[in-house]
Amino acid sequence: MREKAISIRTNFKSRIFNKYQNEGKDPTVTHTYLDSEQWKNFLKRRSTEKAQKRSKRAKQCAAKNTCPTHLGRTGWAGFEDKVDGIWSSLEATNKSLQGVKNPFTKKFLSGRAKKNTLTNSYELPPNAIEESKKGNAYIYIHTHL
Fold first, then answer.
1. Which of 16, 33, 82, 129 is the most exposed place for a label (fewest CB within 10 A)?
2. Strand 114-116 to strand 121-123: parallel, antiparallel, or no bridges (unpaired)?
3. 82 and 53 inside one domain
4. pLDDT value of position 144
5. What is the residue range of 104's domain?
């Protein structure tokens, strides 16, 4: 629950920063609950060289992600209960997945499956299976859970 709250706060700060800072506006006028002194400190931290390097590296890593997840707002934590149902649907439509036993691979692929509203079944992007074979499944899920 704490991780979810941190994620929500981080996303909010990012949206506010992008919306107001990029336009040169002050969000404390619109969002009166924000403290202007804290906002100024936040801007200072975001503009440091270290923060800029971290942001650049994160953007580069995100650009390399050729197989993004479709987890929704709840992320991996809210996804745990859905894995078995999604995996059953994937196995039914992809015969090559029927022998998969590794739980990390199942989570990796299930997290990338997207629901087809016409057929009401889950489908994988073309490169998802290949990405899971590279060993990314274990590394990604192990570091993001």
1. 33
2. antiparallel
3. no
4. 45
5. 75-144
Is residue 70 domain-resident?
no
Torsion of CA 136, 141, 142, 144, to 10 degrees: 120
Domain membership of residue 11 (yes or no) is yes
**Does residue 10 fall inside a structural domain?**
yes
Q: Residue 24: left if φ>0, alpha if ψ -120 to 50, beta else—which one?
A: left
pLDDT at residue 8, as a whole number: 63
Is 38 found in the same domain as 89?
Answer: no
Structure tokens at 89: 């649907």
Count of Cβ atoms closer than 10 Å to residue 125 Cβ: 16
Using alpha carbons, list the distances in angstroms from residue 127 to 2, 72, 86, 97, 142.
Answer: 33, 20, 18, 14, 20
Answer yes or no: is 136 within a domain. Answer: yes
Q: What is the mean pLDDT of each run of 10 residues along the chain (145 residues)?
A: 64 78 81 86 88 90 83 83 91 86 88 91 87 60 44
Contact (Cβ atoms closer than 8 angstroms) between residue 75 and residue 7? yes
Same domain, yes or no: 93 and 125: yes
Q: Which two tokens stand for residue 67?
A: 């197989």
